[in-house]
Amino acid sequence: MATIYRLATLMLFCFIQLSFSELVQEQPLVLKYHNGPLLKGKITVNLIWYGKFTPIQRSIIVDFISSLSSDKATMVPSTSSWWKITEKYKGGSSTLAVGKQILLENYPLGKFLKNPHLSALASKFNGVDTINVILTSKDVAVEGFCMRCGTHGSTRVGRGPVRGTYIWVGNSETQCPGQCAWPFHQPIYGPQTPPLVAPNGDVGVDGMIINLATLLGNTVTNPFNNGYFQGPANAPLEAVSACTGMFGSGSYPGYPGKVLVEKSTGASYNANGINGRKYLLPAMWDPQTSTCKTLM
Questions:
Q1: Could you tell me the pTM of the whole model?
Q2: What is the SS3 assignment for the chain?
Q3: pLDDT tens by residue, 220-276
């Protein structure tokens, strides 16, 4: 009788554990499509450099954007294979090409920019199939910086209903690097794991690459707040921001996951670009599997 009681108790315990596991099982991440237009086809990326950037810093970012749609970035894993995930979103592929560039090294709007300043800078280039990217140097403060590492939005083209898109990303080398340049800097919160070595030797710019990649992915899949996202439209989880902090397999809060390490420099990366560049790119939500997909 005692044996039967112990067996029944064990079966009940296992049932409770199983039921509890089912209750707490992580639900699949689903980004709903809200029937709005996406950015597809040939997209020109114009760059507005606000503040002082060295030629090397500019080349790191230009090479990254060029790598996303280049057939020359063939070494696996590649930046172009990461960008191909966007093809799985409704409407087909988008091809990015660097367009015009403006250097504003004399800080014409000062060293503290508010949101209207970003819209004004974005309007320096007009075009339908364009993304105007504003890149601010490490000595430029931007409204909301540190609460956010960058943002994307849209502006009217002329007086009609047509809209263009823009992105802002700031260099966080001296402004909250523990948040906006992680995992290349010690994190502000959470487990204090050692920072990774930046693949291009520049913590601020390599951090910008992560944030720029995030916003490019978010922009083409949700350009006008009615594309793919989860949650409220004014604070959405988007294609890449839904996968924040994930760079390789086995990632969890405070740990970026398994990535590659360059033997000669100790630098961490998960994507190869053109001109021998290496980058660390965040995971992107895959609409076919409803999972955050990494290159590693």
A1: 0.90
A2: CHHHHHHHHHHHHHHHHHHHHHHHCCCCCCCEECCCCCCCEEEEEEEEEECCCCHHHHHHHHHHHHHHCCCCCCCCCEHHHHHHHHHHCCCCCEEEEEEEEEEECCCCCCCEECHHHHHHHHCCCCCCCEEEEEEECCCCEECCECCECEEEEEEECCCCCCEEEEEEEECCCCCCHHHHCCCCCCCCCCCCCCCCECCCCCHHHHHHHHHHHHHHHHHHHCCCCCCEEECCCCCCECCCHHHCCCCCECCECCECCECEECCCCCEEECEECHHHCEECCCCEEECCCCEEECCC
A3: 999 999 999 999 999 999 999 999 999 999 999 899 999 999 999 999 999 999 999
